[in-house]
Amino acid sequence: MSSLSGSADAKVLLDAVRRAGVVGQGGAGFPTHVKFETRAGTVIANGCECEPLLYTDQHLMCAHAGQIVRALCAVMAAVGASRGVVALKSKHVEAARALTGPAAAAGVELVLLGDFYPAGDEHILVHEITGRTIPPLGLPREVDALVSNVGTLVSVSQALDGLPVIRKTLTVTGEVARPGVIEAPLGTSLAECLDFCGGSGIPDPVFLVGGPMMGRFLENRAALEQAVVTKTTGGLIALPRDSFLHQAATLSPQVMRRRAATACIQCRFCTDLCPRYLVGHGFETHRAMRAFAAGADAGPETEQALLCSECGLCEMFSCPMGLSPRRINALLKARFRELGQRHQGPREVHPEQSDLRPFRKVPTARLAARIGIGAYLGIHPEFLGACSPKRVRIPLSQHIGAPALAKVSVGTQVEPGDLIGECPEGSLGAHVHASIRGVVVETGTFVVIEGA
Ligand code: SF4
Ligand code: SF4
Predict the structure, then answer these.
(1) Is the CB of 325 under 6 A from ligand 2?
(2) What is the pLDDT of residues 350-403, one digit of tens each?
(3) 56: left (phi over 0), alpha (psi -120 to 50) or beta
(4) According to the model, what pLDDT value does residue 349 have?
(5) What spacing in Å lies between the alpha carbon of 11 and ligand 1's midpoint?
(6) Ligand nearest to C-alpha 284
(7) 90: exposed, middle or buried (C-beta count within 10 Å: 0-12, 13-18, 19+)?
(8) CA 270 to centroid of ligand 1, rounded, Å
(9) Atom 1 of ligand 1: nearest residue by CA position
(10) Could you tell me which of 300, 278, 305, 284 has the C-alpha nearest to residue 119?
(11) Which of 45, 53, 329, 372 could hold 86 in an S-S bridge, CB 3.0 to 4.6 Å?
(12) Does residue 98 contact residue 62 with C-beta atoms inside 8 Å?
């Protein structure tokens, strides 16, 4: 263990969180017991939910305000923090109301932010709350901060009561008969989640898993049936196949390069509105565009792509020519990963780039209108309850790190909460637990359980 090994608070928390298989719910699923193994002066509960149309975190803040504050205080004690903050948007009126009492009683701050995108990006949020910039590719701890999503904190609170992560809350919206926030056992098919909300009323829909800005598309019902709820699933959005978002997501690299070569006017709006540039990162995406358009797939200009968070603002909002800097950066990053190439450039921060930041925040409503989802902004999905699948297909890898090792075999009877996948000793990873009562009928990269 690290410098925390002497802290009883830290040991109790880390052990409970590790046993419960908690991973970060707001991102790629980094194991929480590893993330919390640090020291930090400020702990921020991230309730900003900046993706348009999602209400998952807002529901959790309303329904579990006390648990979020309890977990925040436990994390503060474990990492030695003197400041605790719950950050959400001022438009989250009901959530703020629910949190006010518990936060005041515990002595933690409630900070209400404006409605801009991407307020929930860790780098942006830490800059908002502390005024400090995490260096490019850095972590909040480099500026004495720790950020945890409010959904993760609900799971942390439950872990302290000995309850493992076996369910996930998600928003189902868009072209859906009965848009709602629902709870689903891990491993539930996303098609079953859609059906729980009355299905989609349009012919031939496509489906976004996650939010409109950073989610990934599933092309049809068959793909939806194969995809399952995991610890990081926050949203499912049904959209028409000809929607702007789907068209943008399906452009080929060849078309993106041709368009970049013929239409990029080097206006640098993609850079000047880039949230990472605006917190002071030395990252100018228009230069990566210029190099990519000229045919370069490697070199110091394209290497900057490694600093891109893939928030999508440049291609969904900033670029007047409808080009795809985000997807091109993602393409370049994937290529660098294949080559094993890491960022070689400087990591210094340029504070002067932040001077114009207050005037360059992109309002969520304007963004939603630009990307063709304005019609769904008025939907306020209500909590519809929990769905009860007869069969679940639980991935042994729902997190960053090594997949869990199956602890069950075909024929094993399981109860909700039983350990079915164990984090390999000494590895980065997370435990996985049964989400329903039943019998194991298949094991491999998934554990399939048929309900009793
Ligand atoms: S905003 Fe678009 S046109 Fe302008 S520099 Fe960036 S990619 Fe090129
Ligand atoms: S996706 Fe675009 S706006 Fe977002 S960090 Fe990358 S370059 Fe900047």
Answers:
(1) yes
(2) 999 999 999 999 999 999 999 999 999 989 999 999 999 999 999 999 999 999
(3) alpha
(4) 95
(5) 50
(6) 2
(7) exposed
(8) 6
(9) 319
(10) 278
(11) 45
(12) yes
CA dist 214 and 397 (Å) reads 20
Q: Which residues have any ligand 1 atom within 6 Å of their CB? A: 264-270, 286, 289, 318-319, 321, 323, 325
The span from the CA of 317 to the CA of 244, in Å, is 12
For residue 319, the ligand closest to its alpha carbon is 1
- Confirm or reject: Cβ of 429 under 6 Å from ligand 2: no
The reported pLDDT for the residue numbered 427 is 93
pLDDT of 343: 87
All domains in the chain, ordered by first residue: 3-160 (3.40.50.11540), 167-243 (3.10.20.600), 252-370 (no CATH), 390-452 (2.40.50)
Residue 258, token pair as written in the block = 């041709």
Q: Give tens-digit pLDDT for 226-248.
A: 999 999 999 999 999 999 999 99
Nearest-atom index, ligand 1, CA of 269: 1
Tell me, what's the pLDDT at 418?
A: 98
Which mutation among 257, 259, 266 tests ligand 1's pocket best, with the greatest number of atoms within 8 A of CB? Answer: 266
Task: List the chain residues with pLDDT less than 70.
Answer: 1-7
What phi and psi, each to the nearest 5 degrees, are found at residue 116? -130, 165
pLDDT tens per residue, range 258-297: 999 999 999 999 999 999 999 999 999 999 999 988 888 7
Q: What is the pLDDT of residue 1?
A: 34
Number of continuous H segments (helices) and E segments (strands) in the chain: 18, 19
Query: For a substitution probing ligand 2, which of 123, 127, 274 has the most ligand atoms within 8 Å of its CB?
Result: 274
> What are the angstrom distances between the C-alpha of 288 and each of 225, 265, 291, 331?
38, 13, 5, 12
